[in-house]
Fold this sequence. Notes:
By secondary structure, this protein is an alpha+beta fold. It has nine helices and eight strands. The protein is 39% helix and 12% strand. Helix 2 packs parallel to helix 6 (234-247) and helix 3 (134-142) packs parallel to helix 8 (261-278).
Amino acid sequence: MTSINWSEWGRPAPISLTPVTGGLINESFRAEFDSGEVLFAQRVNRSVFRDLDAIEQNLILLRASPASVLAVNPVSRLDGSIHDAEGWRVQPWIHEAAQQASAYACGQFWGKFNRLLNERAAPWKTVLPDFHSAALRWEQWTSVRQLVPHEYSELKSELEDLAPMFLTLELKLIPAVQHHDAKRTNMLLSTQGFRAIDLDTLQPGYLGSDFADLVRSMAARRTEDDPKGNSAEPEIVRELWDGYINGWPDAAAHEGTMLRMPAYLSWVQALRFAADAAHGSTYYRIDYPEHNWVRAQNQLELVRSLLKLTRFTA
């Protein structure tokens, strides 16, 4: 059983509590009540998300934002807060419609969600500092680069050859509030339309981060664990972009920068995998010793493909 005190949400104890699998970070449950109500209970992983107050403020700000209509908003506790002292929160259980979503529709949703998030200024808090920062990941890489085995020297060289391009790009990026994990699995299709979930990483960042995550998750031909390499589907990248700017027309003014972001973020991810591998694979879970090197190579191949598609120039 969980340690959640349901009376703090004005509810009795549920008649059934079923673990929800699939999430990699937080602990989640489906709670059914005698009244017929069904809720989703989740405890934030405090070892990953150490600033619970920042998440709390951002979720409260989201509830007051125009973007609220496109998100699954938490249920307030009786005192008006969202989380209890242990990090538990409750939200409605969404019965997802069994329907496929096109790349265009996914791009359109995230474009609209981003537009509404940034429609008016608010005191958004940073939950994970420099989460999508190439400069931070480059600094981490330089502390372990000397540990790279000889057999991965070519991978090391290519990663480092790309560094000036992406580090320079970061200096030009436009600040914007982003979800920071935009993908198909983080949008539920309910009877009322799409709704964003997994909002812990919602925070200030760079314009284009969400579009980049969307491309990485939907346009890649293979998963990041595939040893056969990777590349991007040009048609899906275009559909995602066309949908995104339909949802946020003003973003089209930044097309030159935003179309570079998928390659930027894929390079950052390649760097993270390689740095973890060089450090002994202490962060990402691995299934075999070379796993993180395979992931790094996979993402580097995705970078090459995306650079060609978006005609990236320094």
